[in-house]
Design goal:
The chain is α+β, with helices and mostly antiparallel strands and 294 residues long. It has 13 helices and eight strands. The strands form two sheets. The protein has a six-stranded antiparallel sheet with strand order 5-4-3-8-7-6, sandwiched between helices. A two-stranded antiparallel sheet has the order 1-2. A hairpin with a 6-residue loop joins strand 6 and strand 7. Helix 6 packs antiparallel against helix 10 and helix 7 crosses helix 9.
Length: 294
């Protein structure tokens, strides 16, 4: 987990102690169970004595619950209340549910919506059925931005300056692995420019193929991103491009229409875009000009 940057640490309005406390809460992942101070320190890169003080304070405040028998902690109801409050206020999660369910039934894939959490995308809405074996993610699950269809769609929906900042952060985070990841992000920009959706075919997990489409809102929130994924044998690359991708684009455009009053889209409209309509979108050529991607 990344520590606060030097710029943040020297910002007089930035409360480092609060940041570290939130890092401790963020260390708990779905299906983790219990975590001890040593495990939390390893995940947050904070000194163990600091972690001990933070877990004590968070326990006193009701955000963590201690299990004395194992000398470990788990998230307490007060922490969960924050998450549920956030979910309740995400209108796009509730509005998109029938659209997600429809695409899930039509394609047999798992359909999710998520937002950014540092170097990951976190699911806050998920629709799946028994056919989507191998894609066992749920609300609260995190997936990497750099290698997933959802994450790449998000990257290319950002304004230029924000995208450059994120790419520099990813370059620092991944170190020697960055050149390969950078090339994948660059290719995804070209695919989005041509088709309107991002693809991840075995780049995150070998046996999972998915497409991703970003959702931009006019209220200053987001962007968010949707994906539709399934085992690779079910979603071949040919099907991703010719069927799943256009369906997801149409779905997201219809959600945008429901939120902003635009004209609804159909799959037929998405597959008949004129070349001049897609050339204006950001792509790999733009990626090469972004400082953070080199």
């Amino acid at each position: 987990m990344k520590r606060p940057s030097k710029k943040a640490a020297t910002d007089r309005n930035f409360v480092v102690a609060l940041s570290r406390g939130l890092d401790v809460l963020r260390a708990f992942q779905p299906h983790d169970g219990l975590l001890g101070n040593q495990e939390i320190a390893a995940r947050t890169k904070l000194p163990k004595p600091t972690v001990s003080r933070l877990t004590y304070t968070l326990t006193r405040l009701g955000y963590l619950a201690q299990v004395p028998r194992f000398e470990k902690y788990q998230l307490a109801p007060a922490a969960m209340a924050l998450g549920y409050a956030a979910l309740a206020n995400l209108g796009v999660r509730h509005l998109s549910e029938p659209y997600r369910e429809e695409v899930m039934r039509e394609t047999g894939g798992a359909v999710a919506v998520g937002g950014r959490d540092r170097h990951s995308m976190i699911y806050f809405g998920q629709s799946r059925n028994g056919l989507t074996l191998g894609v066992q993610l749920d609300v609260g699950s995190r997936i990497p931005i750099a290698t997933t269809a959802m994450g790449r769609a998000y990257i290319w929906a950002l304004p230029d300056e924000e995208r450059a900042t994120l790419l520099r952060e990813l370059r620092e985070h991944y170190g020697s692995r960055w050149p390969k990841l950078r090339d994948g992000i660059e290719r995804s920009g070209e695919v989005i420019a041509k088709h309107g959706f991002a693809i991840s075919a075995g780049e995150w997990q070998n046996d999972v193929h998915a497409v991703g489409v970003a959702l931009k809102l006019n209220d200053g929130t987001g962007p968010y991103a949707f994906n539709c994924g399934a085992p690779a044998f079910r979603f071949t690359e040919e099907r991703l491009i010719g069927d799943i991708g256009p369906r997801l684009v149409a779905m997201v455009r219809n959600i945008e229409a429901a939120l902003g009053g635009a004209v609804p889209h159909t799959i037929k409209q998405e597959t008949k875009k004129k070349p001049e309509e897609t050339k204006k979108k950001p792509g790999g050529k733009v990626a090469r000009e972004v400082e953070g991607i080199r």
